[in-house]
Sequence to fold (281 residues):
Amino acid sequence: MRVLETCPRRYALQYIGLKEKRSDRTNHRALARRRPAEDHMRRAVSGGIARRLTCLRRGERLSPGDEAGWVADTIRAAFKIGGAAGHHRLDTEPVDDLISRAQHRLRRSREIDILRRIDRDEAAEWLPLERLRPLHTTNESLWTAPDLIVSIDGRWQLIRFAMEAGRSQPAEHQRLELGLVLDWAVREPSLPSDPAAFSVRRIAWRWDRWVDWQRPGSAAWLEESRTLLDADLSILRRAHLGLDGFRNLDSLESATRRRECVTCGFAAVCPVSLVKKVRAG
Ligand code: SF4
Fold:
């Protein structure tokens, strides 16, 4: 949804299959796969936290040295697979710098209160989840699961990790998006059906530390979040039906901030890109 909000043109290229005149089929696919260099770093941190928790579930404790090595291997592998052709910034961004930043974030994640408590065996129950596994409802597949659920001090916590946050407190639309973990939780048969039985928690990397934000769940929050979800789904459905200008790239709005284009794989062929053109391929 964020892509649709920041650049409808990019959304149409990436998810609807419209093509720029300057790109052929193969070239289009390659451009759609492009990712900013920092994505590899952020994914490695998120993967590192998930890996640590999965190992802990099996009763294995990973050392900081093991994690640092895993992060380095993961980022190098990502660059070998898709990174070198992944984005123009990869030519200049030193991979070692990304590895060192990811290792730093992962090391600092050991100080996150809830993860320390899990490590010290203070949580009654806990489970890392695969956020990328969708919840299938009658009409849709929804990616609303938290990254981790923990029962601690008699309350269920639904935790999402954010690998980068612009502010310590989520903005209003982010708060509503976060509230969708309540929707996931109340649909889950093994969990309470009352949203007030949960706390929603976002643990995000901001500047040089992990910032922990949490609020008690409520029926009102869940309702607001569902309303937002319904509105978003309706916009997406219309876009995929080719309505609202989604049949013709040139009738769509494009990014107004350069930083959106910097992270866009189509910058090389997009005639309205706000970054300097580089050779596609
Ligand atoms: S390069 Fe910029 S304007 Fe063009 S599709 Fe990408 S984000 Fe949108």
User: Anything to note?
Assistant: The chain has a mean pLDDT of 88. The beta strands are 125-128, 135-136, 141-142, 148-152, 155-162, 198-206, 209-216.
